[in-house]
Specification:
This protein has helices at about 5-25, 35-60, 65-95, 100-120. It is mainly alpha-helical.
C-alpha cells in the first residue's frame, strides 16, 4: 500500500536536497555561469539523492517492488513540480520556460527510474 504521508515527506526532503545542490552549484565560484557543467553535476548527484530518499521510504514499507519504486519516483516528480510551481518559479526563476530545459526532464526520468531500481533491489 502506498503511504502518502511518508512519500510526501521524502518527496519534500528530496526536493529540498535538489534545491540546495542547485543553489550551491550556482554560487560556487568556479561553476558560476557554467550552466552545462552545473546541469551535468546535478544529473550525477540526483541518483544519489533519489537512492537516499527512496531507501529511507522503503525501510518501513510493507510492499517493495519495481512497481512501487516507479510509483514513488513519479510521486517525487509530482510533489517536486508542485513545490517548483509554488516556490522556485515565482520567487527565483520567474518564467515557465524552466519546463523546456532538457536537464529538468532528464532529472525527472532519472528520479523515476532510480526510485524504481531502489524498489526492485530492496529486499523485504
Amino acid at each position: 500500500m502506498f503511504r502518502f504521508k511518508s512519500a510526501t515527506l521524502w518527496a519534500m526532503i528530496f526536493w529540498t536536497f535538489i534545491f540546495v545542490v542547485v543553489t550551491i552549484l550556482m554560487f560556487v565560484p568556479p561553476l558560476t555561469g557554467q550552466l552545462l557543467t552545473q546541469k551535468i553535476i546535478l544529473l550525477v548527484v540526483t541518483p544519489l539523492l533519489v537512492w537516499l530518499c527512496s531507501h529511507m521510504y522503503f525501510k518501513t514499507a510493507h510492499h517493495v517492488s519495481l512497481h512501487a519504486g516507479l510509483l514513488l519516483g513519479a510521486y517525487f516528480v509530482v510533489i517536486g513540480t508542485i513545490l517548483d510551481l509554488i516556490v522556485t518559479i515565482p520567487i527565483f526563476v520567474k518564467t515557465y520556460a524552466y519546463y523546456t530545459e532538457w536537464s529538468l526532464w532528464a532529472g525527472f526520468a532519472e528520479t523515476i527510474l532510480f526510485a524504481g531500481l531502489v524498489g526492485y533491489l530492496t529486499k523485504k
